[in-house]
Amino acid sequence: MAIIDAIRQVCFTTMVYFYLKGGKLEKVTGQITEVKDFRLMSNNSLGALIKLKCAEDVFDILVFPKIYNKHRELIKEEIVINVDGHRFNTHDEEHKTNGNVLIANDIYI
Fold this sequence. Notes:
Layout: H1 2-9, H2 13-22, E1 25-39, E2 46-53, E3 58-63, H3 65-70, E4 80-88, E5 101-108
């Protein structure tokens, strides 16, 4: 749950845009190993945190409600997906993250 706490700290719109501007656009392909739904406190909309196992690493993919609602049918465990997103720098001992966090811009097969 430490990653969920980290996400809650940055779920304000202005902070998300700050990170997106500085984030490097990346494309990753992998198999979904875990899906955790979450609700944004501001408008009670549903998003998801996905663990994506790639050939060389594991990524945490943060899917905000707009993308989640658009691609909900693809966000299931054991499905192989492609994700376009911005890297979100979270290498942090306190929150136990490894820096492999992407904010999803698009999800497709």
